[in-house]
Amino acid sequence: MKSKKNIKQKSLRTKAIHGEADSSSWEFSHHLIPPMTASTTFRLESLERGAQGFSTFGATKKTDKPIWIYDRLEEPTTKMLEDQLAALEKGECAIAFASGMGAISSTLLSLLKSNQKVVAHKTLYGCTYSLITNWLPRLNIGHSLIDMNNLKELEKSLQAADTRVIYFESVSNPILEIADLEKIVLLVKNANKKREKDDQIYTVVDNTFPTPWALRPIDWGIDFVIQSLTKNISGFGTEMGGAVIAPKSFEGILRAARKDFGAIIHPYSAWHILVYGISTQAIRFEQQQVSAQKIAQFLEKNPKVERVIYPGLKSHPQFKQAKKYLKSPEGKFAPGTMISFQLKGNMGKCQKFVNDIAQNSYAITLAVSLGLTKTLIEVPGYMTHSAIPSNKRAESGIDPRAIRLSIGLENVDDIINDLESSLKKV
Ligand SMILES: Cc1ncc(COP(=O)(O)O)c(C=O)c1O
After folding, report:
1. Which residue among 206, 208, 265, 404 has the greatest number of ligand 1 atoms within 8 angstroms of its CB, and so is best to mutate?
2. Pocket test for ligand 1, best of 101, 130, 225, 404 (most atoms within 8 A of CB)
C-alpha cells in the first residue's frame, strides 16, 4: 500500500499525480495506474447485497465496501476521477457527467423546482444561456439575467422570494469578466440569514475557464462548482465530460439526477481524464498561460488591433480583481489561457482575418472548444454563443467582432508569427 503519511499536507500538484493513497473504489497495493473498468453491470453475491446496494445508493453514509450495481448508478473508474476532482476544487464530493452541459443541467434541475428562479450573470456560455432561457421556462422555472458585479442589482434579486440559485462563470466566456466572489457570497449569506432552511439560496459557479490551477471558488464560500472536463482538465481534445463539485449533503440528489437523466460519463473517458488529463494539467495550463501573456502583449501593441481582453494585462478592466482571485494553489498570479480581442474596422475585417488564419495558419486552428494542446480561434458571436439571439448579444456584452483565442502548447513565436501574417493582410 502506498504511504498515507502526511497526505493532508501534500500539495495539490503532488496529489494530482498520485491521488488518494488508497481508494475504496480499488486497492492500490499493486496498480501504479488505476484500472479502467468496462462492465456495464456488476455481479452481486446475494439478493440482500443487491437490495442493500439500491437502498444505500446516493446515501451520505456508505457501506464499508462500495456496492457496484450498474454503470449508470456508479462505477469505480468514475468514482476515482470524482475523488480527484473534489480534492483539486477543495470540495466535499464531486459527481462526473457526460459533458459540462450534463453537469450544469443536472445541477440546476436538482436545485430548482417550478415557480422558483435562477438569477444568472448576463454573459454566459451559449448553451447555458439556452438552457436557462429556453428549457427551464418550459418547467415553469424562471430566470433573470443581471450584471453579477452590480451588487445593488444582485441585492435586489436576492430579495425576490422565488430566487433559489445564483449562477455565473468565475471568468466569463467569452469576454473574461472576473466575478467578485467574496462580495457575491457575502450578499447571498446575508440574504440566507432571513430565509428558512428550505428556502436557502445557493451559489453555482462555472469554473471552466480558470480551472483549479487558477481559482478555487469553494475557498471563497461558493456552494457548487461546475467544470466542463472536455476543456483544459481533459486537455487533449479526445474526451467529453463534466462535473459538479458539491457539498456532501447534495451528493444523493445529484447522483439520483445523473441516474435518472442518464448523462453519465463513459468509464473510458473518465479513465483518460483521470490518468492523462489531471496528472498533466498543471504543467499544460501553466505553460499555455506563459504563452497567453506574450500573445496578449503582442496583440495589444499591434496597430490593427482595437482591443485585447486578457486578465494578465494591466488594461483589463478588472485587473485588480483578477490579481485577487486568479492565483495558483501556491499563490502566484494565474491569468489563464484564454484571450479575447477585436480588430479595428467592421465585421468584414474580422471575417477576412479569421478566414486567413483558417486557411493559412499552421499553429492556429479555427475550431470551437478550448483548453487543448492545440491553439484554437473562433468568433463567439457566430459560433459558440450563437444560441443567444442577435438582439440580446449586446446585452450580454458580446461584440460580434470579438475573436476568442485558446492558447495551446505550440512554440509561442509560431503562434505570434501566424497571427502577425494574417494581421498584415487585413
Ligand atoms: C464555460 C463553459 N461552460 C460549460 C461548457 C459546456 O461544456 P461541454 O461542451 O463539455 O458540455 C462550455 C463549453 O464550451 C464552456 O465554455
Report:
1. 208
2. 101
Query: Domain of 255: which CATH number?
Result: 3.40.640.10
- With the most atoms of ligand 1 within 8 angstroms of its CB, the residue from 108, 227, 230 to mutate is 230
86: CB partners within 8 A, 6+ apart: 92, 93, 94, 245
C-alpha cell belonging to residue 205: 459557479
Residues 217 and 314 in one domain: no
Ligand 1 within 6 A of 338 CB? no
Does 86 reside within a domain?
yes
Ligand 1 centroid – CA 246 distance (Å): 18
Per-residue pLDDT of the chain (426 residues; tens, 9 = 90+): 567 778 888 898 988 888 876 777 777 677 888 888 889 999 998 999 999 999 988 876 777 788 999 999 999 999 999 999 999 999 999 999 999 999 999 999 999 999 999 999 999 999 999 999 999 999 999 999 999 999 999 999 999 999 999 999 999 999 999 999 999 999 999 999 999 999 999 999 999 999 999 999 999 999 999 999 999 999 999 999 999 999 999 999 999 999 999 999 999 999 999 999 999 999 999 999 999 999 999 999 999 999 999 999 999 999 999 999 999 999 999 999 999 999 999 999 999 999 999 999 999 999 999 999 999 999 999 888 888 888 888 888 888 999 999 999 999 999 999 999 999 999
The finding on whether 371 has its CB within 6 A of some atom of ligand 1 is: no
* 169 Cβ inside 6 Å of ligand 1: yes
How many whole angstroms separate alpha carbon 97 and alpha carbon 265?
A: 5
Cell numbers of 251, please?
451528493
Is any atom of ligand 1 closer than 6 Å to the C-beta of 234? no
Q: Is the CB of 378 under 6 A from ligand 1?
A: no
Q: Is residue 68 part of a domain?
A: yes
6 CB neighbour count, 10 Å cutoff = 7
Give the pTM: 0.96
Report the alpha-carbon distance of residue 292 to residue 310 in Å, rounded.
8
For residue 410, what is the domain's CATH number? Answer: 3.90.1150.10
Beta-strand relationship, 375-378 and 364-366: parallel
Q: Which atom of ligand 1 is nearest to the CA of 208?
A: 1
Q: Which residues fall within 8 angstroms of residue 64, CB to CB, at 6 or more apart?
A: none
Q: Please say whether the beta carbons of 241 and 234 come within 8 A.
A: yes
Atom number, ligand 1, closest to the C-alpha of residue 124 = 1
Q: Which atom of ligand 1 is nearest to the CA of 229?
A: 10
Task: Specify if 253 maps to a domain.
Answer: yes
Domain that holds residue 25: 11-276
- Say whether both 270 and 395 belong to one domain: no
